[in-house]
Specification:
368 residues, mainly beta, Neuraminidase, 5-stranded antiparallel beta sheet, 5-stranded mixed beta sheet, 35% strand, Arylsulfate_ST, ASST-like
Length: 368
């Protein structure tokens, strides 16, 4: 199936980047793809099958340099390119991976709107949509984040009289086909601003439980060594038959800046919540290789074979861990020295099979 938007976006993207090509592919000289710096090659058959989906782009810090052509890429474990988004969408993207919708598999990516390469998903109620979250539910609806600016007094949370703006966290469940908003929730209607996880009733919007929080309110006791902060990519992983145990995974950034942090490195986490004892227990905690600290972004993916695939967000790397915590694969997203800390908002491993919509590109040479 040919993407609806390939041609209009492709013309702009190709024209913008063709002058910066690196001639790595003589059959496609307009491509200048990132080159992975693989420090731990894929460990035999221990890594999960599948391809790597990333959206590398230039970091925010002064002096950082990024890929010549930022965007969506599908890459093999050995660093070889499978597919480049150049020509299909322009520039920065996020949350790129295969997705099932209406019984069929598509590629989806966030690019100011949520593009599934066959359609565009927009927030309802005149809301802006954020790159931070996009999840297809039951193959028919999408759960998306909708940041909502509000003017309120910030003095209860340490703000000054001049500080009046806050971005209230919100989300919607949207019918992908019709765009109808099925459910909407805004954090300031229910909770104070704090660094915590909340389980929300999907019908009433009421808070069922809270985990963590700088200002208290957690329904679970957390050991000092298990405290988290500035976390990303929380996912509900299951519950026991009697409902007394629930499991979540998340990325524990542990830092917001060099001066605001609870530890100098980030971690990937799986935590069990015991509703009987009221205790949160770590089931799996993997520290970042090389002491990486991701102050923004990042993701944690539990794989079918029990491994975990981690994208280190701002730190610009991906890792696959065994269930026991062994590093089976680790790569930085760009090998050029000036491109250290190339970032990818999230990264995933997944199977993907498709038929190219374009004719094969072949370069031939005649020996003298």
């Amino acid at each position: 199936m040919k993407p609806k938007y390939a041609y209009a976006l492709g013309a702009l993207s190709a024209l913008a980047n063709v002058a910066s090509a690196d001639l790595r592919f003589r059959s496609r000289p307009e491509l200048a793809i990132p080159r992975l710096n693989i420090t731990t090659p894929a460990y035999g058959h221990a890594t999960e099958k599948g391809l790597i989906f990333i959206t590398p782009y230039e970091g925010f810090a002064e002096g950082h340099q990024g890929p010549t052509q930022p965007g969506a890429y599908i890459i093999r474990d050995d660093g070889e390119l499978v597919w480049s988004g150049t020509g299909f969408h322009a520039g920065w993207g996020a949350n790129f991976r295969p997705e099932t919708w209406d019984g069929k598999q598509y590629l989806r990516v966030f690019q100011g709107t949520l593009m599934c390469f066959m359609d565009v998903v927009r927030a309802g109620s005149h809301r802006s949509v954020s790159a931070h979250e996009f999840r297809v539910v039951d193959g028919k609806t999408a759960l998306i984040e909708t940041p909502i600016p509000r003017i309120i007094s910030l003095k209860p949370w340490g703000g000054s009289n001049d500080q009046r703006w806050i971005v209230s966290g919100g989300f919607q469940e949207v019918n992908i086909e019709t765009g109808d908003v099925l459910f909407e929730w805004e954090s300031l209607d229910h909770v104070d601003p704090r660094s915590a996880f909340f389980k929300i009733n999907g019908t009433s919007g009421e808070v069922i439980w809270q985990l963590g929080g700088y200002r208290g309110g957690s329904d679970f006791e957390i050991a000092e060594t298990e405290v988290f902060a500035f976390e990303h990519h929380a996912r509900f992983r299951g519950r026991s038959l009697d409902g007394s145990l629930e499991t979540i995974s998340f990325f524990d950034n542990g830092a917001h800046s060099a001066s605001v942090q609870i530890r100098p490195y980030s971690r990937a986490r799986v935590v069990q919540l015991n509703h009987t004892s009221g205790v949160a227990t770590s089931l799996r905690t993997y520290d970042a290789p090389d002491g990486l600290s991701a102050r923004t972004q990042a993701s944690v993916q539990l794989l079918p074979n029990g491994n975990m695939f981690v994208d280190w967000g701002e730190a610009g790397a991906v890792t696959e861990f065994s269930h026991g915590g062994q590093v089976l694969f680790h790569a930085y997203l760009d090998s050029a020295p000036v491109s250290r800390f190339v970032q990818s908002y999230r990264g995933f491993r997944a199977n993907w099979t498709a038929i190219p919509a374009e004719e094969p590109a072949i370069a031939t040479f005649v020996s003298p």
